[in-house]
Amino acid sequence: MLADITRNNLFGRELSASLQGNYGLLEQKLSLLFQDPHFSLNRNFGFSFSGGLCQQPRRDHIRCFAP
Q1: Does the CA dihedral 12-14-19-20 come out positive or negative?
Q2: Do 20 and 31 form a contact (C-beta atoms < 8 A)?
Q3: Angle at alpha carbon of residue 29, lines to 37 and 60, rounded to 5°
Q4: Which of the residue ranges 4-18, 30-44, 51-65 would you say has the lowest mean pLDDT?
Q5: Phi/psi at 16 (nearest 5 deg)?
Q6: What's phi and psi for 41, nearest 5 deg?
Q7: How does DSSP assign 13-61, residue by residue?
Q8: Which of 1, 2, 31, 38 could disulfide-link to 52, CB 3.0 to 4.6 Å?
Q9: pLDDT at 51 > cutoff 80
Q10: Would you list the domain boundaries of the chain?
Q11: How far is 9 from 33, CA to CA, in rounded Å?
Q12: Helix, strand or coil for residue 7?
């Protein structure tokens, strides 16, 4: 099962956030992405943050990562 939720124009500004999830027999993964194209109201600088969590039932067979 795969789910993806994205929100653009967050808080009435040019911010965006995305939440992605993946649930299966071999892997469960959750990822978060946040972007601010004009960090600190400066058009020359942008900010992006991403993180994730991954869980595997058998660690010795499968490796996964989140950006």
Answers
A1: positive
A2: yes
A3: 135
A4: 51-65
A5: -140, 150
A6: 60, 25
A7: TTEEEEEEEEE-SS-EEEEEEEEETTGGG-TT--EEEEEEEEE-S-TTT
A8: 31
A9: yes
A10: 2-55
A11: 14
A12: strand
* Three-point CA angle 3, 9, 15, nearest 5°: 85
Please state the separation of Cα 32 from the chain's center in Å.
2
Alpha-carbon gap, residue 48 to 35, rounded angstroms: 4
| 36 and 49 Cβ atoms separated by less than 8 Å | no
User: What is the residue-averaged pLDDT of the chain?
Assistant: 85
* Cβ pair 5, 17 in contact under 8 A: no
In this structure, what token pair is assigned to residue 61?
């067979």
Alpha-carbon distance 46 to 38, whole Å?
Answer: 5
Amino acid at 46: G
